[in-house]
Amino acid sequence: MKCISYLTFVLCSNIFVASGRKFLIQDAHISVSHMIKAAGYPAEKHHTITTDGYILELHRIPGGRRNENLNSSTKAKEAVLVVHGIFGCSTNFLIMGPDRSLGYMLADAGYDVWLGNLRGNLHTAHLNLTRNDPKFWEYSFHEHGKYDVPALIDKVLAVTGLPRILYIGHSMGTTSLFTTLALRPEYNDKVLAFVALAPAVYLDHMKSMAQVFIKTFRISDFLRSQGIMSATLKPELQDRLVANMCSVKHPKDNICTLLLQVIAGEDLEQTDEDVTMQLMARVQPASWRQLEHFGKIALTSKFTSWEGGILGPVKPYNMSNIKVPVSLLYGENDQVAEKSQVMRLARELNTSGIVEDVRPGCSWPKFNHVDFLFAKDLGTLLNRPLLKHIRKLFNKYGLKMSIA
């Protein structure tokens, strides 16, 4: 049986044979809405269009498992918008299931949950450009912040009729909102609080890597010259690679697990072997400029715009425009959003904004960058305490909602 695409690989029924063993992946490649409904939750799919023509899909969970028949249009509920990082999508907050993933747990806690998608992943498109057009890929998190996040926020507010929402981002999902608030400070009035999971703003510790891959060898420029316009694999090739490289159950023998550990930080104890192949097959397309823009930040040690390219002038975003209460949660062993860099961000925000909290995401010392999404004990380590924090934020900064 051939899978339709790699949009939501974990949802496909398919048997792969690798290393002489058979591995079954259940219910793959069905829609995200079906995935949510199959877990016992109500689901809606919405679209919004950015001012520069990108079509973004949002997945809404308007009620918990006990409220499947909820008519969300008549209920005034507190809304939470959750946004993914690079190579991710809305399903990052669903893949671990109802008792562990943040999307479901927020819904069960009584929130109106919106899972956003940023341009480039397979839940997005363009009014005039196809994915084969190089112009489609001319963006970084700058455009995510300038166009995408405002469009997502405005869509949630338009549908719910609420004046403000709470925003949760992971990695680049945090970078994007910081960019929004710096470039378009009017959005401070539309976000009551910002929970930044593994915030990726300062990346000094990645300077050597950026120097080698982006500046010295200019890998992305070489790939562009070969006609490869984005960090994307053909579905058939990605399926084949995942089948043959990621299906080994023991994490110490699994190439995909080891690769994630090298990039994100070693934490084999919190690696769920049953999820590794699924999440690797769900890796979403990204533009080269996204990686290059992060590289420019690493090389310059500034949260700078992309203007002029990797060698262009350094023009830092105006962080003093950020007035939303921000909670910064880091992993003690996160090798991407490294602790010292998060603390640097906290010091900067403290000079003009509101740092509500800065702390480890949990007490586990090996908690890494992807553990915020896929840790084996995600529900107990991170999300249950996080729900209490979110409740405090709504009580402190939110408007009292009457649920009629």
Index terms:
disordered N terminus, 404 residues, two-stranded antiparallel sheet, 13 helices, globular, alpha/beta
Distance between the termini: 48 Å
Runs in which pLDDT lies below 50 for 5 or more consecutive residues are 1-28, 400-404
Helix/strand/pairing category: alpha/beta
Count the DSSP helices: 13
Tell me, briefly, the overall form: globular
Helix share, percent:
25-40%
Q: Which band does the percent of strand residues land in?
A: 15-25%
Radius of gyration: 20 Å
> Count of DSSP E strands?
13
Present the secondary structure layout.
Layout: E1 14-18, E2 21-25, H1 32-38, E3 44-49, E4 54-61, E5 79-83, H2 102-108, E6 112-116, E7 124-126, H3 141-160, E8 165-170, H4 172-183, E9 191-197, H5 207-216, H6 219-225, E10 230-231, H7 235-245, H8 255-264, H9 273-281, E11 286-287, H10 288-300, E12 325-330, H11 339-352, E13 354-360, H12 371-374, H13 378-397
InterPro entries: AB_hydrolase_fold, AB_hydrolase_lipase, Lipase_euk
Family: Belongs to the AB hydrolase superfamily. Lipase family.
Domain Partial AB-hydrolase lipase: 32-96
